[in-house]
Write a structure and sequence with these properties.
About 50% of the residues lie in helices and about 15% in strands. The chain is α/β, with parallel strands linked by helices. The strands form four sheets. A five-stranded parallel beta sheet has the order 3-4-2-5-6, with helices on both faces. A two-stranded parallel sheet has the order 1-7. Strands 8-9 form a two-stranded antiparallel ribbon. α1 packs across α7 and α3 packs across α8. Bound molecules: adenosine-5'-triphosphate (ATP), (3R,4S,5R)-3,4,5-trihydroxycyclohex-1-ENE-1-carboxylic acid and magnesium ion.
Length: about 300
Amino acid sequence: MIIKRNIMLIGSMGSGKSHFGRNLAERKGWQFVDTDRVLEGRFGLPIAEIFKKIGEKAFRRAEMDVLKKVCLYHEAVISVGGNFPIEHRTLKVLKKYSYIIGIRAAQFRIVSRVNRRIGKRPTMDYNNVHAFVHAMIQSWKPVYKQCDFVLDTTNGRTYDFMQRIEDELVTSDVQFKARRQPNDTDTRDVKSSSQELQLNNSLRNTKDNHRLSKSERFNNPNTTISNDTVGTKIVVNKEHSNRVGSHKLGNDKRRKHKTSNQAGKGRKSESISKQRTPQGGSGYEKNRNTNKRRRRTWNELRHQSANSKSNT
Ligand SMILES: Nc1ncnc2c1ncn2[C@@H]1O[C@H](COP(=O)(O)OP(=O)(O)OP(=O)(O)O)[C@@H](O)[C@H]1O
Ligand SMILES: O=C(O)C1=C[C@@H](O)[C@@H](O)[C@H](O)C1
Ligand SMILES: [Mg+2]
């Protein structure tokens, strides 16, 4: 039996990753994450504009940053951007958590798909699409060989492709780990995936509030929006809203942090009020917990002088 957390779709531009990702997630009742949409949400710009603004190198770094977080999700279908063939080392790390499906299509099909939206893909040479796509397909070839499963989407119906994936999962006996329980906080995974992918990222010059596209939100009636660890808005299936993926842990941490802060503030004001003297002193209070001096506020000084007057 093979145990994974999620399904990740990789492949060249226009191969159909986003299209199948959305459909597969819907079919399985899982969360759908498209790293392109995550980045668009984070920057508040379309992919082509992000490229223009930060450059390719920074874009790939940002994408890797998203990838190392989302690969830890449970029961999610993750579609990755198609701008570069994923490197062997990176794929090895991603494979630990994800069942990797390589999505591919014949050159003529990809050409017709990418031509539907000219300008959407920033590194595409729209003046020479055939040659570009040909070279791109060549560079992806060795990567497809390393995938758990490869789906050719040149001809056929989306429904049938979904069925092929389901059949393959059964044949290969792939099981998906359920989401963690709230108190099951295995932060080791987060650290190790992050470190490994960081390392890979620094070795190559390649590849979060996830703003939902309207279609994502409205296509799936079972989805709502929540935040992940990177403050990324993600589509969450209502049926699974009890999930506690890494995004929930992030929220818990934030909440914890806030509470301790609030508690700290409470202690601080208490110690200051105890130290208050009718004379008002030099205008400074010492916090006995932190031993730091704090200048009294104008209001505090005013009250002190009022108190001292009424005492006399
Ligand atoms: N099997 C299919 N049947 C019909 N249309 C499809 C199919 N697969 C993809 N498409 C269409 O082709 C276009 C490109 O597909 P999609 O955006 O899913 O590719 P992608 O692999 O996510 O590309 P990128 O890497 O650029 O994000 C879209 O308009 C999509 O609707
Ligand atoms: O041209 C590019 O580099 C890109 C095109 C799209 O496939 C996106 O999926 C990708 O993230 C960037
Ligand atoms: Mg896509």
